Amino acid sequence: MQTVFFAAIPVFTISMLIEFWMVHRRGLGEYETVDTRTNLGMGLISLAVGLAGDILLVVCVAALNAVVPWSVPEAAWWSLPLAIVAVDFAIYWSHRVHHEVRFFWAAHVNHHSSRRYNLSVALRQSWTEHFTGMPFYIALGLLGLSPKLILIAFVINLVYQFFTHTEQVDRLWRPIEWVFNTPSHHRVHHATNVAYLDRNYGGIFIIWDRLFGTFQAEGEAPVYGLRSNIDTHNLWRVAMHEWYALIAAMAAAPTWSRRLQYALRPPGWSPDGATLTSEQLKREPHVREAGVIAHLKSVEGAASAALGGDDSPDLGRRHPGASRAGDHRVQHQPSC
After folding, report:
1. 90-106: string of b/e by CB count within 10 Å (b at 16+)?
2. CA dist., res. 319 & res. 322, Å (int)
3. How far apart are CA 8 and CA 129, in angstroms?
4. More confident residue, 286 or 183
């Protein structure tokens, strides 16, 4: 699978250059040199690590194929469409679990850590999700799908997802928006706005989100990044910061039961409610109100500091209700 991605690098590069030209011409500023460099570095290392993941997937799926009494013929016209749908279903559940369970979130969080949203962000891939997500894809072997079919479908899925990481495409024709994951839907997924948290997990198809209650249409302007941004472009810290935070929380817990709760409950969970999960944020309107007040105070302070100068606070695409008081949810982060 990694070989195909290496072959796709020229396509990705040309696409990013075209997008860069478009945003530069319009003066939108969605590309930042250090952020793009971080995205590319994360992606290249992820490709190298992913080779081991591919080998493990092939071995495990082949073992399952050997014991199940059925198989999907690779040459049949319907085999690849079936594999594409099955892989996307597995991606939906893997993606959802990687958002809703903190242990898995530690592997996935780096993909959300850019405050920009452009095609290069698609390359900010995890180094550890190759392994934490493995059980979801190995299970496809029980359907009789061969390693070859699974890997081809997975590559198609990830290449498709690359092109959803852009602000240069508005909403598409309504039937397409209803069935497929689109740039509009994926902008919601990457946003930190409270209403957008933990929504739109589909890879190619958005119908899974509609079926399982995790769909959210794009409305207010998305604010990208984490609820508490990490403010670093060090590749190791970008990749591992939440693993450090999880280990620190578990080490400080008084019992093994509490340690397991930190690992298996949603990101932002705390025993005393000092930090909040995304679902708790959505149920707590005062949290959003506090975000509005803090935002207005910061704007007022900046305006006062300017002493009547020409510079005014750059609100950009920031939404005042989207507080950043936590890691994607409200959550403390240790330095690492």
Report:
1. bbbebbbbbbbbbbbbb
2. 6
3. 21
4. 183
**Domain count of the fold of the chain:** 1
> Does the residue 91 lie in any domain?
yes
Can you read off the two tokens belonging to residue 108? 């996935």
Contact of 291 with 75, CB cutoff 8 Å: no
Q: Which domain holds residue 9?
A: 2-212
8 A C-beta contact, residue 157 and residue 204: yes
Indicate whether 137 belongs to any domain: yes
Question: Does residue 327 lie within any of the structural domains?
Answer: no
Angle ∠(165,169,175) on CA atoms, nearest 5:
100
Contact 161, 203 (CB under 8 A): yes
Residue 223 domain-assigned (yes or no): no
Tens digit of pLDDT for each residue in 25-55? 877 667 899 999 999 999 999 999 999 999 9
- List phi, psi (to 5°) of 63: -65, -40
Which pTM value belongs to this model? Answer: 0.84
- The pLDDT tens digits of the residues spanning 186-239 come to 999 999 999 999 999 999 999 999 999 999 999 999 999 999 999 899 999 999
